[in-house]
Amino acid sequence: MAAFIALLIGFIIFLGVIFALSAIKIIPEYERGVIFRLGRLLGPRGPGLFWVIPLFERMVRVDLRVITMDVPVQEVITMDNVTIKVNAVLYFQVINPNWAVTKVMDYIRANVADRADDLAERRRPGRP
User: What is the pTM of this model?
Assistant: First the structure.
Protein backbone atom coordinates (compact mmCIF):
# COMPACT_ATOMS: atom_id res chain seq x y z
CA MET A 1 0.00 0.00 0.00
CA ALA A 2 2.83 2.39 0.86
CA ALA A 3 4.51 1.63 -2.46
CA PHE A 4 1.31 2.46 -4.34
CA ILE A 5 0.96 5.81 -2.53
CA ALA A 6 4.62 6.65 -3.20
CA LEU A 7 4.13 5.77 -6.88
CA LEU A 8 0.98 7.89 -7.05
CA ILE A 9 2.73 10.87 -5.41
CA GLY A 10 5.70 10.48 -7.78
CA PHE A 11 3.36 10.40 -10.77
CA ILE A 12 1.53 13.54 -9.59
CA ILE A 13 4.86 15.36 -9.09
CA PHE A 14 5.98 14.24 -12.56
CA LEU A 15 2.77 15.59 -14.13
CA GLY A 16 3.18 18.86 -12.21
CA VAL A 17 6.74 19.30 -13.51
CA ILE A 18 5.65 18.59 -17.09
CA PHE A 19 2.72 21.01 -16.70
CA ALA A 20 5.01 23.75 -15.35
CA LEU A 21 7.62 23.24 -18.09
CA SER A 22 4.99 23.43 -20.82
CA ALA A 23 4.03 26.88 -19.54
CA ILE A 24 7.46 28.41 -20.20
CA LYS A 25 7.73 30.19 -23.57
CA ILE A 26 10.81 31.71 -25.15
CA ILE A 27 10.29 34.32 -27.86
CA PRO A 28 13.25 35.64 -29.92
CA GLU A 29 13.96 39.34 -30.42
CA TYR A 30 12.22 39.54 -33.81
CA GLU A 31 8.91 37.98 -32.68
CA ARG A 32 6.09 38.80 -30.27
CA GLY A 33 3.64 36.43 -28.64
CA VAL A 34 0.06 37.71 -28.64
CA ILE A 35 -1.68 36.22 -25.60
CA PHE A 36 -5.35 35.29 -25.31
CA ARG A 37 -6.74 34.34 -21.90
CA LEU A 38 -10.00 32.44 -22.19
CA GLY A 39 -10.53 34.03 -25.61
CA ARG A 40 -9.88 37.64 -24.56
CA LEU A 41 -6.91 39.56 -25.90
CA LEU A 42 -4.31 40.38 -23.25
CA GLY A 43 -1.72 41.85 -25.60
CA PRO A 44 1.76 41.12 -26.87
CA ARG A 45 4.51 39.63 -24.74
CA GLY A 46 8.15 39.21 -25.46
CA PRO A 47 10.88 39.08 -26.40
CA GLY A 48 12.42 36.80 -23.83
CA LEU A 49 11.22 34.23 -21.34
CA PHE A 50 7.69 34.33 -19.91
CA TRP A 51 4.90 32.12 -18.59
CA VAL A 52 1.70 31.15 -20.38
CA ILE A 53 -0.87 29.49 -18.11
CA PRO A 54 -1.73 26.15 -19.76
CA LEU A 55 -5.40 25.48 -20.52
CA PHE A 56 -6.30 29.15 -19.85
CA GLU A 57 -3.97 31.12 -22.11
CA ARG A 58 -3.14 30.69 -25.78
CA MET A 59 -0.22 32.30 -27.58
CA VAL A 60 0.04 33.26 -31.26
CA ARG A 61 3.53 34.09 -32.57
CA VAL A 62 3.89 37.11 -34.87
CA ASP A 63 7.06 37.81 -36.83
CA LEU A 64 8.07 41.50 -36.82
CA ARG A 65 10.76 41.26 -39.49
CA VAL A 66 10.37 42.70 -42.97
CA ILE A 67 8.65 40.12 -45.18
CA THR A 68 9.27 40.03 -48.95
CA MET A 69 6.84 38.44 -51.39
CA ASP A 70 6.59 38.28 -55.16
CA VAL A 71 3.44 39.62 -56.77
CA PRO A 72 2.60 37.39 -59.76
CA VAL A 73 3.22 38.64 -63.29
CA GLN A 74 0.30 40.63 -64.70
CA GLU A 75 -0.34 41.57 -68.30
CA VAL A 76 -1.26 45.23 -68.71
CA ILE A 77 -2.31 47.34 -71.69
CA THR A 78 -0.79 50.82 -71.67
CA MET A 79 -2.49 54.00 -72.96
CA ASP A 80 -0.82 53.60 -76.38
CA ASN A 81 -2.17 49.99 -76.70
CA VAL A 82 1.08 48.19 -75.96
CA THR A 83 0.82 45.00 -73.94
CA ILE A 84 3.46 44.66 -71.24
CA LYS A 85 4.04 42.20 -68.44
CA VAL A 86 4.59 43.69 -65.00
CA ASN A 87 5.75 41.99 -61.82
CA ALA A 88 6.57 43.41 -58.41
CA VAL A 89 8.20 42.60 -55.11
CA LEU A 90 6.22 43.45 -52.01
CA TYR A 91 7.93 44.46 -48.75
CA PHE A 92 5.89 44.77 -45.57
CA GLN A 93 6.36 44.65 -41.82
CA VAL A 94 3.99 44.13 -38.92
CA ILE A 95 3.92 47.18 -36.67
CA ASN A 96 1.06 46.23 -34.33
CA PRO A 97 1.00 42.48 -33.51
CA ASN A 98 -2.43 42.75 -31.85
CA TRP A 99 -4.02 43.98 -35.07
CA ALA A 100 -2.18 41.40 -37.19
CA VAL A 101 -3.82 38.63 -35.15
CA THR A 102 -7.27 40.05 -34.34
CA LYS A 103 -8.22 42.24 -37.33
CA VAL A 104 -7.29 39.89 -40.21
CA MET A 105 -7.49 36.09 -40.46
CA ASP A 106 -4.26 35.65 -42.46
CA TYR A 107 -2.41 38.97 -42.68
CA ILE A 108 0.29 37.72 -45.08
CA ARG A 109 -2.10 36.46 -47.74
CA ALA A 110 -4.43 39.43 -47.26
CA ASN A 111 -1.58 41.87 -47.79
CA VAL A 112 -0.47 40.21 -51.04
CA ALA A 113 -4.01 40.12 -52.46
CA ASP A 114 -4.62 43.77 -51.53
CA ARG A 115 -1.39 44.94 -53.14
CA ALA A 116 -2.03 42.95 -56.34
CA ASP A 117 -5.43 44.66 -56.63
CA ASP A 118 -3.74 48.03 -56.14
CA LEU A 119 -1.31 47.28 -58.97
CA ALA A 120 -4.15 46.35 -61.31
CA GLU A 121 -6.08 49.54 -60.46
CA ARG A 122 -3.08 51.82 -61.02
CA ARG A 123 -2.44 50.46 -64.49
CA ARG A 124 -6.02 50.59 -65.76
CA PRO A 125 -6.17 51.62 -69.45
CA GLY A 126 -7.37 55.13 -70.11
CA ARG A 127 -6.44 56.35 -66.67
CA PRO A 128 -4.07 59.34 -66.58
Answer: 0.69
